[in-house]
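User: Reviewer 2 asked us to show a designed sequence for the structure in our supplementary figure. I'm pasting the C-alpha cells here. Could you produce the per-position amino acids so we can include them in the response letter?
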C-alpha cells in the first residue's frame, strides 16, 4: 500500500485521472460529508472486498483505488487498503489525511447537511 498526500489526490482529481476514490467510513459519516465523486463501502462491512469489486464492475486488479477515512487519527483507510491488497488488488493508495485534512484547506465536499461541511467527519 502506498500513502497518498492531499496534494497528490487533488492533482489526480483535477487531472481527471481514472481511479476509484473510496470513502470507507460508516454510512452516516459518508452521508454527512464526503469528497465529491467518491464511492462508499464501509470497511466494517463483512463483505467489504466483494462490495468494492462490484463497484469496480470487472475492472482489472491493477485499477487504481484510493481509500480515505476521517483523518490521521483514523486507521480505516489503511485497513481497507490492506484488505484490498490481500484480495489481489495491486494499485491501492491510502489518503491518510482523510476528510479532516481535505476540509482544513477548504477543498470541495458533498454534504447532505450544510453544517457538516464545517467540521470533520467521524468514523
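Assistant: Here is a per-position design you can include in the supplement:
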Amino acid at each position: 500500500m502506498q500513502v497518498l498526500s492531499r496534494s497528490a489526490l487533488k492533482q489526480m482529481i483535477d487531472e481527471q485521472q481514472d481511479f476509484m476514490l473510496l470513502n470507507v467510513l460508516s454510512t452516516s459519516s459518508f452521508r454527512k460529508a464526503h469528497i465529491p465523486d467518491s464511492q462508499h463501502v464501509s470497511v466494517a462491512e463483512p463483505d467489504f472486498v466483494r462490495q468494492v469489486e462490484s463497484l469496480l464492475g470487472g475492472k482489472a486488479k491493477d485499477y487504481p483505488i484510493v481509500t480515505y477515512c476521517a483523518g490521521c487519527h483514523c486507521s480505516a483507510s489503511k485497513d481497507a487498503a490492506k484488505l484490498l491488497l490481500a484480495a489481489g488488488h495491486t494499485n491501492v493508495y491510502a489518503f491518510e489525511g482523510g476528510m479532516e485534512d481535505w476540509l482544513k484547506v477548504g477543498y470541495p465536499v458533498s454534504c447532505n447537511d450544510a453544517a457538516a461541511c464545517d467540521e470533520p467527519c467521524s468514523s
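For the response letter, you might also mention the following. The longest strand covers residues 20-23. Helices lie at 6-14, 27-32, 48-56, 76-86, 98-104.
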